[in-house]
């Protein structure tokens, strides 16, 4: 399988300069390719606040030699689910042995910091040729037969490989002929930022000390839920506030619009634990987050063009895996086009990319939609079966931390490549998971 003979360096075009676009630029420059990133706006960046990066994402940051300290992360120590009214912990998942078990920590980043960290790794010093970033390049069309991109500004460019990392409203996805089957979620979300300094000054709880992802509610099959994620070393508390859509529908709103009034944020929560309610009262930058439930796409590539991240598999945020899935997509492309595995056949590499990524992301998408109204479906809490309120839809289908973190992408790619190349795969892995691994949901891999 290790075919050096046909390897060649490709000229790659990445459409979209967000977290996914920067990640794939890092992976592919390190694999020996020339990468140009095209960003539609006048700068590449991210909006929002916190972003989760569990071990299955963090491992690639290490593999790519990304300077993680630049991202100013909080290393999570716990997942805490609290009672809606009293704030008392109901379900706690301890992450004390997390790094020991999985080899990497669970990082929580501020999006802008994470983006800068990845952009520096894509465009700065390091292995391979630094990627080039071109701003004000909005994709109008792609000729899939000739792999030619036409931009709104009139520029026309040809690439060996084109990657659509252009987010949930992807232009590239449309070119591939995929029409999303989607519906607005039954849930609305407002996001707000609180500084730990101000909360402490007002005598409120100092949640930064917990180094935890904290949740209020989510136990009773209701849409009400508050999610707190600390970032910037604990200085900033990022709150995602969920409530039923009938209490406020933001499906037509955009993130860039002006801030919503604080009354709107507090209104759905008359009975909420007063400590966290006090935090929301001092919330700044209150923004609506549109939530859509997407059915999985039937394919994510055509010709020499493929999709990555939210363009390929938008998901609800309730497994905190959106960024990790984009990073994994990038890692898969980095491996498939590396000197070790790429024998010069782009079509074959992208066929394996689709085969490796679609089942995994589809599984996470479905689990994220379930966890929207039942926190016991969330990775971590799904293992806490001894709490009195534990109830899941189907115990055998629960997404487990083992599936996410014991996954070996190299082995998954080797298995799928062997089948494409007509050779026998002899590894003790099935779809990247060790045969014989017993999952807490009662499934044994390969049984």
Automatic annotation (TrEMBL):
It comes from the Eukaryota. Keywords: FAD, Flavoprotein, Monooxygenase, Oxidoreductase. Residues 11-365 form the FAD-binding domain. InterPro entries: FAD-bd, FAD-dep_Monooxygenase_BioMet, FAD/NAD-bd_sf. The keyword Magnesium does not apply. GO terms for molecular function: FAD binding; monooxygenase activity. Transmembrane segments: none annotated. Belongs to the paxM FAD-dependent monooxygenase family. PANTHER family: HYDROXYLASE, PUTATIVE (AFU_ORTHOLOGUE AFUA_1G12410)-RELATED, MONOOXYGENASE. This is FAD-binding domain-containing protein. It comes from Penicillium bovifimosum. The lineage of its organism: Eukaryota, Fungi, Dikarya, Ascomycota, Pezizomycotina.
């Amino acid at each position: 399988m290790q075919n050096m003979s046909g390897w060649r360096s490709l000229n790659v075009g990445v459409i979209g300069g967000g977290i996914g676009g920067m990640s794939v630029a890092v992976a592919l420059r390190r694999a020996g390719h020339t990468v140009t990133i095209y960003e539609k706006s006048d700068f590449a960046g991210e909006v929002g606040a916190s972003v989760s990066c569990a071990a299955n994402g963090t491992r690639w940051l290490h593999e790519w030699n990304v300077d993680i300290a630049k991202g100013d992360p909080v290393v999570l120590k716990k997942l805490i689910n609290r009672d809606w009214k009293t704030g008392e912990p109901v379900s706690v998942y301890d992450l004390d042995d997390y790094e020991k078990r999985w080899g990497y920590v669970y990082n929580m980043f501020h999006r802008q910091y994470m983006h800068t960290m990845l952009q520096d790794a894509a465009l700065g010093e390091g292995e391979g040729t630094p990627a080039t970033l071109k701003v004000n390049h909005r994709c109008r069309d792609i000729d899939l037969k000739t792999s030619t991109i036409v931009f709104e500004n009139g520029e026309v460019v040809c690439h060996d490989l084109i990657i659509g990392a252009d987010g949930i409203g992807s232009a590239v996805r449309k070119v591939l002929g995929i029409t999303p089957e989607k519906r607005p979620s039954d849930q609305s979300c407002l996001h707000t930022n609180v500084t730990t300094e101000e909360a402490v000054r007002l005598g409120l709880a100092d949640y930064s000390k917990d180094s935890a992802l904290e949740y209020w509610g989510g136990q009773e099959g209701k849409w009400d839920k508050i999610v707190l994620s600390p970032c910037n070393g604990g200085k900033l508390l990022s709150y995602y506030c969920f409530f039923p859509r009938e209490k406020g529908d933001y499906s037509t709103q955009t993130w860039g619009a002006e801030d919503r009034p604080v009354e709107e944020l507090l209104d759905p929560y008359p009975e909420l634990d007063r400590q966290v309610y006090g935090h929301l009262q001092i919330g700044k930058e209150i923004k609506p987050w549109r939530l859509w439930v997407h059915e999985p796409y039937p394919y994510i590539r055509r010709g020499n063009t493929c999709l990555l991240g939210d363009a390929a598999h938008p998901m609800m945020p309730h497994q905190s895996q959106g960024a990790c899935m984009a990073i994994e997509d990038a890692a898969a492309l980095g491996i498939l086009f590396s000197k070790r595995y790429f024998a010069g056949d782009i079509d074959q590499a992208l066929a394996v990319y689709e085969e490796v990524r679609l089942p995994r992301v589809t599984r996470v998408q479905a689990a994220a939609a379930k966890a929207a109204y039942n926190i016991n479906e969330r990775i971590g809490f799904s293992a806490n079966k001894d709490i009195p309120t534990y109830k899941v839809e189907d115990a055998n289908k629960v997404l487990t931390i083992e599936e996410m973190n014991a996954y070996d992408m190299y082995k998954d790619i080797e298995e799928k490549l062997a089948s494409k190349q007509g050779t026998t795969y002899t590894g003790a892995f099935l779809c990247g998971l060790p045969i014989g691994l017993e999952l807490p949901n009662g499934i044994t891999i390969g049984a």
